[in-house]
Design a protein that fits this description.
Distance between the termini: 40 Å
Order of helices and strands: EEHHHHHHH
Strand order of the largest sheet: 1-2
Number of domains: 1
Number of strands: 2
Shape: globular
Largest sheet: 2 strands, antiparallel
């Protein structure tokens, strides 16, 4: 897209705040046999997001300590720009929109069980 000869930056986080940059996918068999692991992973993601928002520099240091490549200055600028848009929640209507874009028919409940997410976020 261009406006008066200049590219227009589409700020995905502002247009579709729930557009996922990371997706957790498990099979129904795994979810049924290991629900606590699924909930634990979602809790860990939420905790990581909280840390990123609260202390970006520490989050970058931890990433580097675990092998995250790249320039910490650039990573900090990216977090300053995006961190407030990070979240673990997903609304059903947005899932339906994603499904429509991908040409996937059917009910969203066939693909997304929010009971794990509700458990992970309860008491927060």
């Amino acid at each position: 897209m261009e406006k008066e000869g200049f590219p227009v930056l589409l700020e995905m986080g502002k247009v579709l705040p729930e557009f996922p940059s990371t997706v957790l996918v498990v099979t129904k068999v795994f979810a049924a046999s290991s629900p606590d692991k699924v909930v634990g992973m979602l809790k860990a993601l939420a905790k990581a997001i909280d840390l990123i928002r609260r202390d970006k520099d520490r989050a970058i240091e931890m990433g580097k300590a675990h092998g995250l490549p790249g320039d910490p200055t650039f990573q900090r600028r990216a977090l300053d720009y995006m961190a407030e848009d990070f979240q673990v929640r997903l609304k059903t209507e947005n899932l339906v929109a994603y499904m429509n874009v991908l040409g996937i028919g059917g009910e969203p409940e066939k693909f997304f069980d929010d009971s794990f997410l509700k458990r992970a976020l309860s008491g927060r």
